[in-house]
From TrEMBL:
It comes from the Bacteria. GO terms for biological process: cell division; cell wall organization. It holds the Pfam family Transpeptidase. InterPro entries: Beta-lactam/transpept (IPR050515), Beta-lactam/transpept-like (IPR012338), PASTA_dom (IPR005543), PBP_dimer (IPR005311), PBP_dimer_sf (IPR036138), PCN-bd_Tpept (IPR001460). PROSITE patterns: PASTA. This is Cell division protein FtsI/penicillin-binding protein 2.
Length: 750
């Protein structure tokens, strides 16, 4: 018995010893052999890692107005586990449907979602309607959550707002095609957002730290930081005010004529800095998911058109540079034979024997065939076309820019190329760059869209300087071409672009559209391009309208007025006053335009300003109020565009004396009466100078007046305007054609 007990004890002891040996070996393997592996696993348990999101750089206009920025975005999430536990699924689904607009069945599916084990999920995001919503909507959801908490007496009600970042565009659709957008997934789409994404995006940082069992950071634990690199800020050359003028002008025309598209570009011709660039249809980048098909297409750099007669500017410049343009040379207008085809003027019977300068003003196709085809070698004309930048990208920092095409094959195609039809397609931006080269004295400039790039971390600024591509024509040639184009506006097909007080050069164009290889009757691309002031160009503007719904619409009747509105408002904004502020009421054959003053009293100042600017009227706000209490002149008064409307926004006791320069005596006296000033008058006509003094009887305003026609200079921002050309058909806006035995007819109107 004792022996058996001893053997059993020995066996048990042996087993215990063996187990202990195995345990020791195991501990050795874990702590020594596999020490690094298990230490790494432990550190994973101890450590936590958090992302530090980079802030995407701001995009601003040239004056620092923010066009794109990062703001807080909130993602709505729900807890199916909590909602079902509390029995409030249906109520929450109904409320989120009301606030977010997401279908009830989709919300119900999210709120009752189970995992593979059949258990309710702890948290599910509500996408896409609840993804990165703005603060206003987030506040409404937060308020509902608080109300729900108070009503059911539970702190946890299964509704969450996850704070993130989203891209925000303060001016909504303004310059949408230029800026582009960033979608909710953080992907840059279109425009500057895409082309400069690497600079704007920055780099997310990360922090790693050790934590205890309660997931609290250990005070003296190891910390690793991968620093965040915030995106760089980009300042554009765009002027938000000019962009607004441009977009409003094309919107009015778009609504009136319902074209397939309309595009306008404004630039500084000396530097080719883009001041404004827009196309319609357009979209709101804050709501990019609602964009209609094609509305995000940027016609300024991707739209290809037969330019029509605006291309004659290139032929004219080449002819002047080559010395083959004699403005006094005569020719027989109407038609010309090239190979086996007859090319006609838009007025098929022509104007008889006229000078080359008259041919330019009337936009005679025959004149330009003679200049560009008969008087120059085709290789010479092509050399100038290439030098002006056609057939190649301009180099603007936007993705997707097209090169266009200039590829004539036969004699007739070389002939029609001289007036912008046939095998030639250009982008609007190429047109602007070419005409800017003439306006600035003959140098082709690369279009510039970025003014500077700033690193927010150290404040370093990288400025983008204007870049000259090549000299195309001499300064003398550029000056002559500008003077010839000025006559097109003053006494030719471009009279609707005339601006009283400013020298304007420009050219109309209306190209018949090609459909299935044939020119189609009634479908045109109408355009106008020009610059001002001719003596010192500050702005070049191009407007192109694709297929307006009026078959009789032409470049002079549709596009030229849009050019005029954009250019006049932009010149005023830039502080470029007219060369003569007080114009005679009758100067030669052109009368100063008179317009009835609209009633803007009781309107907000911003609304009144928009109403008056839409009519190209000068205005001055008097006082610091926000509502128009009184206006001078009174509503219904006939006034010229060289005069100014005063918007009174405060009680007279609080008002300062405004600038009365350019006012007739009647309106000046009315303002003096309003301000309770004594008024001392010298001369007659319109106010040219004023001075305020204190005398024994009170404040005295001395006014110097001079009769109409006496030169004077208006203060910055003032301007006068002139008549548009009468639309009586005298400009011959019909369409030029080239025809071969009655088989082919392409029309261009100017």
């Amino acid at each position: 018995m004792i022996r058996r007990i001893k053997l059993r004890s020995l066996a048990i002891g042996g087993v215990m010893t063996l187990l202990f040996v195995v345990l020791v070996i195991r501990i050795y393997v874990v702590q020594v052999v596999h020490a690094e592996f298990w230490l790494a696993k432990a550190k994973e348990t101890w450590s936590a890692s958090e992302k530090i999101p980079a802030v995407r750089g701001k995009i601003t206009d040239r004056d620092g107005n923010v066009l794109a920025m990062d703001v807080a975005g909130y993602t709505v999430a729900v807890s199916p586990e909590v909602l079902n536990k509390l029995g409030i699924v249906d109520e929450v689904v109904d409320k989120l449907h009301e606030l977010l607009g997401k279908p009830r069945d989709e919300l119900y599916e999210i709120a009752t979602k189970r995992n593979a084990e059949g258990k309710f999920y702890r948290q599910r995001e509500v996408r896409n309607e609840g993804w990165k919503i703005d603060k206003e909507l987030a506040d409404q959801i937060s308020a509902y959550r608080e109300e729900l908490r108070n009503r059911i007496g539970e702190k946890e009600v299964g509704i969450y707002l996850l704070e993130e970042q989203k891209r925000f565009y303060p001016k909504n659709s303004l310059a949408a095609h230029v800026i582009g957008y960033v979608n909710k997934a953080g992907e840059a789409m279109n425009g500057i957002e895409l082309s400069l994404d690497e600079l704007l995006r920055g780099k997310d940082g990360r922090i790693k730290y050790e934590r205890d069992g309660n997931r609290v950071q250990i005070q003296n634990g190891h910390v690793e930081i991968d620093p965040v690199v915030h995106g760089k800020n980009v300042q554009l050359t765009i002027d938000a005010d000019i962009q607004y003028y441009l977009e409003k002008a094309i919107k009015d025309t778009y609504d009136k004529y319902q074209p397939k598209s309309i595009t306008a570009i404004a630039a500084d011709p000396k530097t080719m800095k883009i001041l404004g660039m827009a196309s319609l249809p357009s979209y709101n980048p804050n709501e990019y998911w609602e964009t209609k098909p094609g509305a995000d297409f940027d016609y300024a750099i991707k739209g290809l058109y037969e330019p029509g007669s605006t291309f004659k500017i290139v032929t004219l410049a080449a002819a002047v540079e080559e010395g083959v343009f004699d403005p006094n040379e005569t020719y027989m207008s109407g038609s010309i034979r090239v190979a086996d085809q007859t090319i006609r003027d838009h007025k098929r019977e022509g104007w008889g024997e006229i000078t080359m300068l008259e041919g330019l003003k009337k936009s005679s196709n025959v004149a330009f065939v003679k200049l560009g085809y008969e008087k120059m070698e085709t290789s010479t004309l092509k050399r100038y076309i290439d030098a002006f930048g056609f057939g190649q990208p301009t180099g603007i920092p936007l993705k997707g820019e097209l090169s266009g095409m200039v590829a004539p094959r036969y004699a007739t195609e070389w002939a029609t190329l001289t007036f912008g039809q046939g095998r030639v397609q250009v982008t609007p931006l190429q047109q602007v760059a070419a005409v800017a080269a003439i306006a600035n004295g003959g140098v082709l400039m690369q279009p510039q869209l970025v003014e500077k790039i700033e690193d927010p971390s150290d404040g370093k600024v990288q400025r983008v300087e204007p870049k000259a591509v090549r000299r195309v024509i001499s300064e003398e040639t550029a000056r002559k071409v500008g003077e010839y184009l000025e006559q097109v506006v003053a006494d030719g097909t471009g009279q609707n672009a005339f601006i009283e007080g400013y020298r304007v050069a420009g050219k109309t164009g209306t190209a018949q559209k090609v459909v299935n290889g044939q020119y189609e009757e009634g479908k045109y691309i109408v355009s106008f391009i020009g610059y001002a002031p001719v003596e010192d160009p500050k702005i070049v503007v191009y407007v192109v309208v694709d297929e307006p719904n009026d078959p009789y619409a032409g470049g002079g009747s549709v596009a030229a007025p849009v050019f005029k509105e954009i250019t006049l408002q932009s010149l005023r904004h830039l502080g470029i006053g007219p060369s003569n502020a007080v114009k005679a009421l009758n100067t030669g054959t052109r009368n100063e335009k008179v317009i009835a003053v609209p009633d803007v009293t009781e309107l907000a100042v911003s609304q009144a300003r928009e109403e008056l600017r839409a009519r190209s009227l000068n205005l001055e706000v008097v006082g610091e109020g926000t509502t128009v209490l009184q206006q001078i002149p009174q509503p219904g008064t006939n006034m010229s565009l060289s005069q100014r409307i005063y918007l009174i926004t405060e009680e007279r006791s609080k008002l300062q004396v405004p600038d009365l320069t350019g006012l007739p005596l009647r309106d000046a006296l009315e303002i003096c009466s309003l301000l309770e000033l004594s008024c001392r008058i010298e001369g007659e006509g319109f106010v040219t100078a004023q001075s305020l003094s204190e005398e024994a009887g009170g404040r005295v305003l001395s006014l110097k007046l001079e009769p109409p026609g006496t030169p004077a200079v208006l203060p910055d921002g003032a301007a006068s305007d002139g008549d548009e050309a009468e639309e009586d058909g005298s400009t011959g806006e019909e369409g030029a054609s080239s025809e071969a035995d009655g088989e082919r007819q392409g029309e261009t109107e100017d």
